[in-house]
Amino acid sequence: MQVDTGRIGQSDDKQQVILTAAMAAFAQYGFRRVSMDEIAKRAGMSRAALYLHFRNKEDIFATGVELYFEQVAGAMADVLHGAGDPVEALRGAFAAKVAPPYDMLMDSPHGEELIDLKTTAAAGVVAEGDAKLIAVISDWLARAQAAGRVTLEDYGTPEDAARTILNALHGVVMAARSYAVLRADLDRLARLIGRSLRS
Fold first, then answer.
1. What does pTM read for this prediction?
2. Would the keyword Transcription regulation turn up in this protein's UniProt record (predicted)?
């Protein structure tokens, strides 16, 4: 699925209204049951007006996923560069990865369908998003290593370690069955990894 990435980041209030309406509908009814008519109605516009912004609901979903990754990458970078201790840095970064509206997804009876859809209908967008997150974590590790706050002696390059950290985070996310458990497990993972990285 190709997404018009030129739209992301632009100040388009209508587009944000559409994305918010669509994600709420997907969480309530599941992706398959939601029509473009339903999204248009929730967004307060005609179906024709909706098609001026998006080709179909797959396009809406992929654009929402892309926007999510952009927001998460920015939030993670802010947290990682603002924290000195590796444990606190990772606790904040992991919390940013699953910040609201991720809770809405986890608490939805259709959350599993939407997570699966993320890896099929938006697979390319997810791969690009993961690459952004790896770059953010890698940059933090390189800076923290240079400052003497972490050691990567047993973990390879900053990029190798960042990829492993993100894969571990994904494993915890995929195994979680509730948002509260997810947050607790990610906090535990941050402490495990952060303590092992301390110089």
1. 0.88
2. yes
